[in-house]
From TrEMBL, chain A:
Keywords: Nucleus, Ribosome biogenesis, RNA-binding. Residues 95-170 form the PUA domain. It is found in: Nucleus, Nucleolus. This is 60S ribosome subunit biogenesis protein NIP7 homolog. Pfam families: pre-PUA_NIP7, UPF0113.
UniProtKB/TrEMBL annotation, chain B:
It comes from Strix occidentalis caurina. The keyword RNA-binding applies. This is Nucleolar protein 8. Plays an essential role in the survival of diffuse-type gastric cancer cells. Acts as a nucleolar anchoring protein for DDX47. May be involved in regulation of gene expression at the post-transcriptional level or in ribosome biogenesis in cancer cells. Residues 737-746 have a biased composition (Basic residues). It is found in: Nucleus, Nucleolus. Keywords: Nucleus, Phosphoprotein, RNA-binding. One of its GO terms (cellular component) is nucleolus. InterPro entries: NOP8_RRM, Nucleotide-bd_a/b_plait_sf, RBD_domain_sf, RRM_dom. Interacts with the GTP form of RRAGA, RRAGC and RRAGD. Interacts with NIP7. Interacts with DDX18; the interaction is RNA-dependent. Interacts with DDX47; the interaction is RNA-dependent. Residues 475-488, 533-543 have a biased composition (Low complexity).
Amino acid sequence: MRPLTEAETRAVFEKLGRYIGENIQLLVDRPDGTYCFRLHCDRVYYLSEKLLKVAASVPRDNLVSPGTCFGKFTKTQKFRLSVTALDFLAPYAKYKVWVKPGSEQSFLYGNHVLKSGLGRITENTAQYQGVVVYSMADVPLGFGVAAKSTQECRKVDPMAIVVFHQADVGEYVRNEDTLT
Amino acid sequence: MEKKQVSKRLYVGGLGHTVSKAELQERFGKFGRVLDAEIITRKDDQGNPMKTFAYISVSISDADLRKCMSILNKSKWKGGTLQIELAKESFLHRLAMEREEVKLQKEKPHGNDKTCLLESLKKAGVVDFHMKAVPGTEVPDHKKWIVGKFGRVLPILHLRNQLEVWLQKESCWFNSLTQTNIVKYDPSKYCHNLRKLEPDLTHVAPVSELTWHLEGRDDSVNKKRQGEFSATKKTPKKLKQLGSEALNGAALNSSGCQSCSTNRSSPQLDQRSKTKPSEKSALPPSRSHNSKISGRGLLSDKSNVFGVTAQNNTSVSDSDIDSEEEIRALVKKEREIQKAESVETESDHLEIVGDNFELKYNSHWSLSNPDAIKRAIKGRYREKETMECDNGYDSADTDEIIADSKTPDLSSRKTAILEDSKQRKMENKEILTNKNCGLVNDSSLKTCNSKEYIERKGKMKKSKIAALQSTAVNSTTTTRSDSESSYSEPEKGESEISSDYESMMRNCYHLDLTLDDLKALATDSTGTPVEGSDSTQSSSQCSVEENPKGNVVNKTKFSTFCPAVKKKCICPEDVLASILAGEENADEESSKGQNNLGLKYQPFRGMGSLCEKELTKDSTGLKKRSVESLGLESHISYCGEEVSKRQSKNYPSYSLEVSSKKTQNTHCDQYKELSDAASLADERDQPVSRPRLQGKNKDVSSLQDNQNSEHGDAAPSTDKREDESSDMDSNAAVSQKRVKRQLKSPKLLSKKFKGDLCLHATASKEPSTKEKQLQDNQRRLAALEERQKERELQKKLIQGALSNLVITLITSDESAPKTSVRLFESSEDEQDDTDDERFKIKPQFEGKAGEKLLKLQSRFGTDERFRMDARFLESDSEEEETNILKVGEEEELAAEKKKNLQILGSLLNINLEHSKPTKTATSAKKFNMCCTTILQQSHFSKAKRKKKREESEKVPEVSKEVYYDIAVDLKELFGSSKSKSEKKEEIPWDKDDADDSTPRDNLGPNVGSDVAQESSGFRFSFFGDMEESGIKEGNSRTFIILQFLVSSLCQALWSNIVSRNSESRGFLETKVSNCAKSL
């Protein structure tokens, strides 16, 4: 477990910034305590200072997960967000997409969101903007990337993909063994 | 058997080539009549006959047929074997038969009626349902036919209700018909609604073409669709126009079913695009078709809502509807299309929300937005304010509003508390005396008001109001010291409500301002017991009711007390003048009596600050107030004994007030009691008492404390007695007593000045003789203990300064700062003497940290507002320790965070200011410190002035130090012969009086003492405005007083020393000389 290098931090923030923009600041500089990012087994964890101290006493091999896993670095040193970061993305997300109840399940099985399943979308969403996917009941389901801008979404064919799937809470079941 | 002959057709095969028709007929004729015979010969290529057969139509009975068959079948005839079979009927025959049947069938139903009708009509002169006649004329011989517009012959109809269809066309009359089941419809009467449509019908265009011209959209989807469903694709467009029409209720009556059908779909679409449930109800026309259509997919529910409207029905049922099939087809198509489209139409459904869209759930910490809450609260506030504009006093809400608006600045809890207390007061009034219904109303209003207010503001809890009230009460006790300053304002605001209430409130208000000291004392002394009681309150409601009452009563007493105090504090001359002038009315007299009382008790409180306030006010107003205060007192006296007792225990102030009462009564009866009170006052008044009791040391001071406590205790005891008496007595009695007192008061005043001095001993003894001596003793003991503790504390506080002082005194070197410091401390002593409870030993002052804290506090002086909490200390020490321990880690983390933020800033191209709210707690502390420092500065400016005054005051302070140094010896020498010393002192006092009173306007030592006290009292109660005047007066007066005091002190010292203590003479001389210097 070590702090992120600058490059890593940059990668992480870049990725996070696609979803929550400058709200990262609120994660880094939190009013309710000191929180930090730590790298452990190629995964990036977000944890409080308190937890950090506790976790520091656990041997590396035995430490499965200190804090909340935000994602992991691939072998090519790209950062990939995991669904566990959803709890921190959802409240700060700038661009949101709501899926209709009918296509909720489809999304939760790892499929993209089609135009037909799109219930609501934040205005001014740009193409390839990171978005958080909500159900119509405002439950965060996951996140993805907007395949079309909001304007395009209006006109596009019903079967066209509107949001590319990146992570969904279904992974908690599907990828139970790999999520930390 | 053979009777029934049926014509049958027989096939006869195997005929010889030579057989002729005749032969056949002959042969078969035996069995039946041969109608027809037909011989068919098949020939091969050469023309040789291959096969010959025949069809014979025979009318034959079944038996004969069988016979014939059995005989002739397989018989040889002319070279061939006959083979007979039944054959199908000839097609011609069948055809003929069919035609005949058809003819028959057709002619039967049809031909008869219609032709008959036509015939008959023709007879009547009707050609092709047209007849030249005036509309409305009956066709002759035909009751049911009538001539309508354009000469058309129309049937008179009897319609059922549901036939609105028809009627829709001839719209207006129709509504009336709906009532009865069957309606007779005379077309001639409505002929003006008819139009000739024949030319239109010729040009009827298919529905698809009708819709064509409405197209306008270029959407890709639409285009796609256009190829397949050219007719329908436009519908969404059209619907916007038509739909709007429909919404407006415009009728598309005769335009034909096609348009209608399109129309029908269009509104639906329109609706869909905009669907809001709310709109549904208002929605336009859809007819029976619609209902079918509405079955489709997602749209079904919405389209269903449209309901069936008559308008559409007309079009459907219209006579024009030859194209029903067309419509059906169209509907089908549309259905298909819309199914396909449903997705697309839903795209219209796609909601696009702004960034500020709020999610429903707020579980996350960052999402729980306090601002929102605040906003909501504010909104409520506003609401209420607006309501306030409308307000009548009838609703509790409005009152709440009033309260809100009036106390916007103050902290909510305080205001709530205030309200509560007020309410309680009002309640008391209500209960005790039902004098003013207005008052009662007010009080009730207040109650509602305060309750709600507390409910909302207190802690936003939804717990019971009672509980809230109890909490509020608790907070009152805890926060009273804080809220005192703010206390006055809301009360003022409240005072506007009713005149009575107003006056009372005003009194309260002044009281609050002036009695800051008192309240501080009260909070200190009674804080714990009251809180305890409060806690019990929370448990049970009734107790809650009572206790708050008690509190309220206390407050009310304060209020009542305050006017008296005011009177006292106002220039005594004024009071005297007023008293002497107006003795006409009993009320006025009573008020004056109070004034007198005030004069007497002025020394008690040392409410110097009151004076300035009072100066600004008119004497008349004061009188009124005093009268009112009398009323209040009476009310209070009405209150149960318990309350009064509690008060007496809790509040020294109360005891004072009671003592005043007592003095009133006793003055009527006894002259000496007054002197007793005076003595109390004197003893409380340390500057005055000090010069007399010159032998005081710190050790000796405990004795003084004893005396003080004795006096203090005596007062409450008398107080209790008084309460009881007052309970029994009505207001009138009290007022009477006062009046009596008042009569004596002018004399008393004059006498009192001397009497105060003379009757110390007697006064102190008198109360002790009373019933409740034992209780008094107990209290006294407790007070003594506390006193001792305080003394110890004081010692600590003063020691440093004293040691310096002693040295300086001995060396006779006085530096201004030192003396000032010393004076400062000594002033604290004064306070302690006056206020028993002010200086309990506070745990935070103990130990090393305590020293630190003490230092801190010493910087701020004794000001109540800047009392140092343990927090200040802790924060320091904690920071030190934790900093030492955790600097490493925290720095690392901080650095990391900083770095992270930098990276973030570079990434986002924004300037992330280093907002470091991470240590909110510490920052809050810092903020506090800032506030305190700011206040401190303002305070220091005041403190400077104070020091000036104190410098002028030096002399008595110096004299006190003299006590401290010398008195050990003196006390030992004198023993407990206090009375002697006092008497000895008296002599010089009197002399001095004689000497000094001349320059001092007959006011005598009392005034002097007042002023001296004033200066000390100033420290606590003064605020900017009052200050300056106070200072000026204070300075001038104090100077005089000081002169007086110093002179008297010198004399007393000399007398004592010369007579008894020659040893310390030199010492005293130096001190006296110092005093003279300082003066």
